[in-house]
Amino acid sequence: MNSHCNGKVSDSKSAVVAHRKHETSRKESEDESRLPLLEAAYTSILRHLGEDTDREGLLRTPLRAAKAIQFFTKGYHETIDDILNNAIFDEDHEEMVIVKDIDVFSLCEHHLVPFFGKVHIGYIPNKKVVGLSKLARIAEIFSRRLQVQERLTKQIAMAICEALQPKGVAVVIEAAHMCMVMRGVQKMNSRTVTSTMLGIYLEDPKTREEFLTLAMRT
Ligand SMILES: Nc1nc2c(ncn2[C@@H]2O[C@H](COP(=O)(O)OP(=O)(O)OP(=O)(O)O)[C@@H](O)[C@H]2O)c(=O)[nH]1
Ligand SMILES: [Zn+2]
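The line above is the sequence of GTP cyclohydrolase 1; the predicted structure tokens follow.
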């Protein structure tokens, strides 16, 4: 790994490895076996809300909701290795690569309501580049979990650092949190911006500035 990126995330590498083990240990088949339990739990929630779960409109709602929450959290089952699929290529390119405006939908782990927005990812290769779609797939893996935005931002950056060993990685997320919009403080237009800068993006203000100028430009 490049010394810049490696140095900055050395503490975090083991966390990434732990995440992978965690992910691979959960089999997709577990989803099947958990579905009836989730369905029963949603039936219970509806009844506690005072609903009649036998009325026509709600008959299949617990099952639908169970499948939906499994989809919203499917990132727990996916690993970086699965999605990279050998799409890392040797390339003598050492200029900045940015994929911006990647839509993400996640669930706030405090209230279990959505937060969603855009992820901007930049990296400076170190003899290796990755298939562009894979950056969006990495964002997808970590967003389809119960999250806080800060952790989501860091996990995406660390995963790219780990996989590519680039000279640096920058990730910015701009998101709207429905827990601040639909309830609680009810601020319709508030947006949360988080960033993680690793390697050269952390060390060199000009590189960071170039990324921010290109990524945040509308
Ligand atoms: N740092 C951070 N906070 C989050 C995120 N998503 C939700 N929160 C916050 O988590 C906090 C939970 O605060 P609590 O006081 O325990 O919960 P609450 O009474 O529902 O808070 P209110 O939302 O203020 O009504 C709130 O301030 C949320 O805005 C996130 O991604 N990052
Ligand atoms: Zn929340």
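Note on the example: The CA atoms of residues 108 and 147 lie 5 Å apart. Residues 108, 110-111, 113, 177, 179 surround zinc ion (ligand 2) (CB under 6 Å).
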